[in-house]
Design brief:
The structure is a single chain. The chain is an alpha/beta fold and 145 residues long. It contains four helices and five strands, in the order E-E-E-H-E-H-H-E-H. Helix 1 runs parallel beside helix 3. The longest helix has 17 residues.
Amino acid sequence: MENSVELFTDGACSGNPGPGGWGAILRWRDNDKELYGGEENTTNNRMEALAVINGLKELTKPSIVIVYTDSTYVQKGMTEWLEGWKIKNYKVKGGGLRTNHDLWRELDALNQKHQITWRWVKGHAGHAENERADELARQGVDLVR
């Protein structure tokens, strides 16, 4: 399908929290676009989520997307936990907001714009695109050190 893409993502952090980076590879047909960035003081989970967000933001029209991530936090967050969080308006016991609620809201909006399948892949296990996304994420860390 013409508007079908694959998105391979990873996040990295030097210390948790600490300087972090995200990497993403968008694949459309035989074309790859590599993206990366970083933040000075962040967490690995934020970088994992930002990798997906920044990859999806590159899409200019609603698309069919397969997201590959080695983050169970992102994969399960989007497939198992998000609906419950939304019902509770991202609040946790005691009334505070869920960690990374800003990113979950953004992921939810992007998820509704596209038709997304969320796939978990084992990290550091020889999956070529996951390994490359990890390299890009580490480049993102280097940007902010």
